[in-house]
Amino acid sequence: MRRSALPVLALLLSACTLVPWWASVNRDGRDNATVAAVTLSADAFRDGMFVGLALSGGGSRAANFGAAVMLELAELGALDRVDAISSVSGGSLAAAYYMLQGERGIAFTRREVDARFARDFQLRWLVRWFDPRNALRYWFTAFDRSDIMVQVFDANLFHGATFADLGRRLVPRPSLLINASNAVNGRKFVFANEEFNRLGSDLASYPVARAVMASGAFPAAFASVTLRDYRTGDDRRYVHLFDGGPIDNLGIGTLVKVLQNHLAKRYLDDAPAAEPAGAPPDLLRRYGLPRGCLMISVDAYTDTSVKARRRARLDDLRPWYGFLVDPNLNDATGDLLAVKRSEALHLLGLDSANRDALGSFPIFGPNLDDDELPNLRGELARALAQRTGHGAADRYVVDELLRRAGSCHLWHVTLSQLRPSTACPLGELVNGVGTAYKVSKGEQCGLFAAARTLVRAMWREFGLDGLMRDGFPTAGPIPGAPLRIREPRLSLDCGLPETVAEDGREVCRISLTPPGSR
User: Fold this and answer.
1) Which residues are CB-contacts of 467 (< 8 A; sequence separation ≥ 6)?
2) What gap in Å lies between CA 485 and CA 424, rounded to an integer?
3) Contact 296, 54 (CB under 8 A)
4) Cα(398)–Cα(408) distance, rounded to whole angstroms?
5) Nearest alpha carbon to residue 48 among 294, 292, 259
6) Nearest to 480, CA basis, from 375, 357, 370, 385
7) Coil, helix or strand for 86?
8) CA-CA distance, 219 to 224, in Å (whole number)?
9) Taking the model in full, what pTM does it have?
10) What is the Cα–Cα distance from 123 to 127, expressed in whole angstroms?
11) Cβ atoms within 10 Å, residue 102
12) Axis-axis angle for helices 145-153, 121-128 (nearest 10)
């Protein structure tokens, strides 16, 4: 009896040594200087323009659509212009994979993305439950469901990479900002130098796969990801993170904050030279952005009509796992995310119902991520008071300064712009893809085809190549904005995709054939 107990004891001991009892794995540290930074260096604005890329949440649907759009932007020469990437949930898979190209055998090519992002991460997650080490760690340590998915992401995509590995092979090198939700204070948490400095923790050694998991830890399906706050010393305090979608599923708010911080910091750091009362400066032009600003929003949101038609034919909505976890939670969360998405797009000057694709918004206008905006306004008011010599700056003067900070422009690329119908089988296909961490091969190819169709059509029809070359207006909208998707003006290719090969191997089924030419 004693001999038979020895192997079990050995397994328990190995489980405890492989994974610590504590849920947090972040280390003590200070003065972080990784590529994940909210405060960008002056080199980020070397071309006189700020370009931000936001990748939305949505499981493997978002990962594949986001990666496909990035590949299209790379072919058009636009991806190298990006200064900062903000990602949420499934979009973080694509963003982190791109930032690790050249490291640990990772290559951000259509062939590699096609092979790796078509994998069924959900099935691999389930299989790892049967690993005896994982089972023992799950029951006897703080190891949980999210830790198992971290293993899956690491084995299939990131290969043990940490934040120190991000962007080392990229020239130029954008900032990567992975977004999650903070369960302690109900606010956004960004995996960035600034946030980890506030925790007294080292970001360079933190695993990329764990940050991506935190960004996509959907409630009920996955456990929260825990970070230790080292500022409290022996009085242990923790931060618990889950899916970033409930705060900002588009990821645009973080990019707006990056730009706001840059302009405000430069203004506050300036020598207190005399500033004429009532004539605040054009901050964009003064501080190195004479060619304007563009945010590219890659939004994996789908038209809900496909899902509605499918459900109308079912007498029981429960999937196989619905006997254990009711899917109503997913529906309720999805509805809340859809409402927040519409509100965010409205603040950014777009109407999602009208399929707006290119619009403009005042940089200090959107109330997307305003936790620090009141403090920022106070600092600007004090600086203005000092420079005008009035002793106090009234609200009007501060508002005028923020208004004159300039405009930024939003290019919105979303799956719902391909409306599903019998005349648009591609729209029917991609708008029916779910948000699980898995896609079929046909769904993946449809997402790649949708990315190519939308990006190429808008790039051509909206003259984005010229705007990227010559610059965007720093005040006011682009003439004619908001620009909308209107068939047949954009010649959207709604046909099912055809086979395309790369290096003699079928990569994906993508079509470039314009309608009516077959």
Assistant:
1) 294, 478
2) 14
3) yes
4) 19
5) 292
6) 357
7) strand
8) 8
9) 0.88
10) 6
11) 14
12) 120
Q: b/e for 318-328, b at 16 or more Cβ within 10 A?
A: eeeeeeeeeee
- Asked whether the beta carbons of 434 and 421 are under 8 A apart, the reply is no
Which one-letter amino acid corresponds to residue 52? G
What single letter denotes the amino acid at residue 365?
A: G
Q: Structure tokens of 159?
A: 């290969």
Residues whose CB falls within 8 Å of the CB of residue 346, separated by 6 or more in sequence, listed in order: none
Amino acid at 192: A
β partners of residue 180: 189, 243
Q: Tokens 């314009």 identify what position?
A: 514
d(CA 339, CA 100): 33
Write out the two tokens for 389: 């010599």
Report how far apart, in Å, the C-alpha atoms of 195 and of each of 28, 177, 184, 190, 503 are: 13, 11, 14, 7, 43
Please report, in tens digits, the pLDDT of each residue of the chain (518 residues total): 445 554 544 444 444 444 444 567 899 998 899 999 998 887 777 788 999 999 999 999 999 999 999 999 999 999 999 999 999 999 999 999 999 998 888 999 998 999 999 999 999 999 999 999 999 999 999 899 999 999 999 999 999 999 999 988 887 789 999 999 999 998 999 999 999 999 999 999 999 999 999 999 998 889 999 999 998 877 789 999 999 999 999 999 999 989 888 887 777 776 455 455 555 566 777 777 888 899 999 999 998 877 777 777 777 777 666 665 666 777 777 788 888 898 888 888 888 777 788 988 888 876 666 555 556 666 776 666 666 555 555 566 667 777 777 889 999 999 999 888 777 888 888 999 999 999 988 889 889 989 998 999 899 888 899 999 898 888 777 877 778 776 544 556 676 665 544 455 554 544 433 333 33
The span from the CA of 68 to the CA of 451, in Å, is 6
In this structure, what token pair is assigned to residue 182?
Answer: 């903070």
Question: Using an 8 Å Cβ cutoff, are 501 and 445 in contact?
Answer: no
Give the Cα separation of 211 and 200 in Å (integer).
17
Helix and strand numbers, DSSP H then E, in the chain: 19, 14
Per the CB < 8 A criterion, the answer to whether 410 and 297 are in contact is: yes
Structure tokens at 477: 């909208």
Give the number of residues written for the chain. Answer: 518
Phi, psi dihedrals of residue 14, rounded to the nearest 5°:
-65, -35
Residue 389, helix vs strand vs coil: coil
